[in-house]
Structure formats: structure tokens, C-alpha cells
Amino acid sequence: MLTVHAAPLVLPVGAAPVPGGAVLVDGDRIAAIGTYEDVVAAQPRARVRQWPGVITPGLRQWHGRWLLTRVYHPDPREADELGTEPIVGFECDDDSRWAGSVRRGLQRMLAHGTTHVGGGFPDGVRQAVTRSGLREVADAWRLAPPLTGSPDLDPFVEGIDLAGTVHGPLTVGGRADLAAFDVRDEAGLLAQGSGTCVATVLGGRLVYRRR
Questions:
Q1: Across the chain, what does the average pLDDT equal?
Q2: Strands across the sheet containing 135-137
Q3: Distance (Å, rounded) from C-alpha 100 to C-alpha 119?
Q4: Residue 42 has what pLDDT?
Q5: Where are the domains of the chain?
Q6: Architecture, CATH, for domain 2-58+168-209
Q7: Which of 10, 42, 77, 178 could be disulfide-bonded to 18 (CB atoms 3.0-4.6 Å)?
């Protein structure tokens, strides 16, 4: 199915921004990038998803292994006991509880526009990553220890700018991994971070949408 993802600004990275832009997705590939009017005129029967703010390539989280194996992501039902924020150094020998933490960690990465994660995962964690659709960047975590002492769900904390944080540019024929953020422009995205994510698309599939 053809799907148009449109926003007030598309930031392909490596190419000029497109005000009033759109990305046409065909299966798991990008079929066109241009203004909304041009893309829809060429494919008038495509489904249209309108997002606020900006569309960018999906983000790369170097510290996937750290965030899934060394950080505990509390269940909302544990909020009274543990709070809601990720906990570094949490000790628990309950495998099922850790499996739940891994699933929640992956969901929270998707909610930050992440499509690629640094890997080197243990087998059980790798299976969960594969099921989530996130793409593993093998062993990248070994090259980038957390600068702040513990990893952050927001890839911009260490990616610094957009070009240094995305997995690669949006290109026609490339894989449809992209995200939408409720900010006005790139400066707003860098200032407010990836917590402004409203949608994440992995291989053409909408895998996260803010409610």
C-alpha cells in the first residue's frame, strides 16, 4: 500500500529541507520525497498521514545494549515502588521481570524516534529487538561509552546535531525508516529533544504513534 507521510517541514538530511513536504512510502521503501502537493498529485489514491512539525530520518541509539541490559524500565504498575524513570544498576534475578523491562525499553526507544540501535546483544535480548523491528548496528556500543555515565533514551544527548544522530538520509529507493516530531524546525528539535516524537515508521510500518 502507498502511504504519504506529510508534515510542515521534511528534513531529509544531506538534501535541502522541504517546507510543506511529504514522503511517499511504497512497502518498505521510499518512493518519492517532495512537496505535499506534488507527491499527492502523482499518487492521488495513496493513504495520507499528516503529522505536526517535522519529518526526519529515524534516529540511531548507540547505547541499545546498555539501555536494555543495564537499565531497568519500570512497569507502570511499579510506579508507586520504583517511579517511572529508567533505573541504572537495578538488581533483579527474575528473568520474566527483566524480559518485561526489555520490551518496555524497546517501546520507549520507538517513542523517541529511534529506528537503529547499537547491538552486541545477548540472544534473548536480540530476539526481542528483532521482533520490535528495530535494526541492530552491530557492536557500535563498544565504540561509544555513555558520555554522561549512563545512557539516555534521547539519542540527541550524544548525537549532538541531526546529521550526527540519524541513521542515514532519507533517499528515494532507500528503506522507509523515519520519524515525526512536534517541533517547528531543526533548531527546535535539537533544543527540545526526541521526546517530542509523535510517530515512528520502521520499514514502512507505523510502529509508534503518540496518543
A1: 90
A2: 59-61, 114-118, 135-137
A3: 19
A4: 97
A5: 2-58+168-209, 60-159
A6: Roll (2.30)
A7: 10
